[in-house]
Amino acid sequence: MALPYDATPHARVEAENPAVPQLFGAECRTTVTGSHVVAYCHNPYPETDRVSLHVECDRWWDIDSDGPPVDAEPAMTVRLTGRCWKEIRSVWVSHQK
Question: Which of 26, 29, 79, 80 could form a disulfide with 43 if both were Cys (CB 3.0 to 4.6 A apart)?
Answer without folding.
Answer: 26
